[in-house]
Amino acid sequence: MRKVKPLMRLRSIFFVFIVLVFLIPLSSNPQISAADIDENMESTVFILMYQGNQPVTRGSGFVVASNIVVTNHHVIDGVDQGLIPTIVLDQNTIITGTVIWSSADKDLAIIQTDQPLNRPVVKFTRDSDVKVADKSLAMGFPASADISDFTDNIENMLTVKVTDGIISAKVKTNKGVGIYQHSSAINGGNSGGPLFSEYGTVIGINFAGATSIHSIVDGNGNPVSIESNANDIYFAIRSDELLVELDALGIPYQVVPRQVISSSTSGGTSNLLLIVLVGIAILLSAGALILAFTKKGKVVVQNVSKRILPQHPKPVTPGGVNAYTPVQNQYIGQGQDVLVSPTVGTKPYLIGISGEYVGQKIPIQQPITIGRSATSSQLVINAPDVSSKHCVISYDQTQGTFILIDLNSTNGTYLETGQRIPPQVQTFLRANQKFYLASTKQMFELRLED
């Protein structure tokens, strides 16, 4: 193998440092994925109010617990007169419920269903982590979308519609309720539906759109006022107004802080930091180049590189190491070690122990995403407690280890011992270890075989 001179390696490090300084701001703002959108759409439900056997009014809502749905007060208005709220999941599944709390001032209501909904549960982001000009997504079932010769059928009526926009302002109602003005288009039927952040968390509950009044003249010359929806002016109740009520009722929920503040929205501090980093990189690179072209400088660079760069390690043969080698820091912040076998020359497999893939041997030739969504998972499990993108398993040939990552699943990924692994953190496993998704009904074993 051709050796790389220390000087060339040091130059390479400086070059990579400069590239990273410029790339970090461009990649620092993750957006909601297609799988997250699919899961959020599953969390958004159609609400129909019945009087006897006749549907009377409709609206939207979203799932916050296995049998808890949130919507607007004006959607369920009429329960005192005998109207019954129902959740329509599909053409053959209608689940009745009971209003356990509502507030006309906040225009919020909480429905407890008579049976579990088997739908994903939403996560929330508090108002303090929402900024004006943040992107937003509105989901629901607008009635206007059904009024067409092309879409007038039940299947289309039960299809979640998605619109995007931004948070235009933070304002309050005349009752002092905190609301957002936003531009994600909503219509009659969207009431009670969720307003999501660009990270896929609920930040508001849609409830109204602004109207404008225009005056025209009729055929007799008389002025006539026409009321219509104002463009791009819609309103959602801030999630904080709901969370305090969930706390009072003892209903659990998950809050996700603002994940990343991009350089484009963090103002002068971020820009100043970027300028400082670029300046340091340029000065270091210039210094290295000056040293590289002087006789004395070459000696200095070589001596420094010997101290700061890793030296070529001696090759290790399988017979020269212990049977197991500890792998560090597979749990960020917990400092635990997992013993892994550095077996060489064997092929990694995923073996189904229970569930749909019981008895099947699946080769791990590349990372395998496991989940319920056929569009975003390579290994699809049709189980309601499995998330759209639940977890991913891969094999590191150089280390001889399996790597398991939970993808922020709702019901968790667990080791055979029952220990839940933390989300978005690499967990290193060895051959013959088992793990399961949500419950032991979906269990797999990791193996190395010839």
Name the helicity range. 10-25%
Total number of β-strand segments?
Answer: 24
Structural class, by secondary structure, is alpha+beta
Strand order in the largest sheet: 1-2-3-6-5-4
CATH architecture of the largest domain: Beta Barrel
How far is the first residue's CA from the last residue's CA?
Answer: 29 Å
Write down the Rg.
28 Å
Strand % is 25-35%
Structure, described:
By secondary structure, this protein is an alpha+beta fold. The chain has three domains: 6-28 and 266-308; 34-249, Thrombin, subunit H (Beta Barrel); 322-449, Sandwich (Tumour Suppressor Smad4), CATH 2.60.200.20. The protein has helices spanning 6-23, 34-43, 73-76, 154-157, 239-249, 268-292, 295-308, and strands spanning 44-51, 54-65, 68-71, 84-90, 93-103, 108-113, 135-140, 161-172, 178-182, 194-197, 202-217, 223-238, 325-327, 338-340, 347-352, 361-363, 368-371, 379-380, 391-396, 401-406, 413-415, 427-429, 434-437, 443-449. The strands form five sheets. It has a six-stranded antiparallel beta barrel. Strands 7-8-9-12-11-10 form a six-stranded antiparallel beta barrel. Strand 23 and strand 24 form a beta hairpin. Helix 1 runs antiparallel to helix 6, helix 1 (6-23) crosses helix 7 and helix 6 (268-292) packs across helix 7 (295-308). The longest helix has 25 residues, at 268-292. The protein is globular.
Outline:
This protein has 450 residues and is α+β, with helices and mostly antiparallel strands. It has helices at residues 6-23, 34-43, 73-76, 154-157, 239-249, 268-292, 295-308, and strands spanning 44-51, 54-65, 68-71, 84-90, 93-103, 108-113, 135-140, 161-172, 178-182, 194-197, 202-217, 223-238, 325-327, 338-340, 347-352, 361-363, 368-371, 379-380, 391-396, 401-406, 413-415, 427-429, 434-437, 443-449.
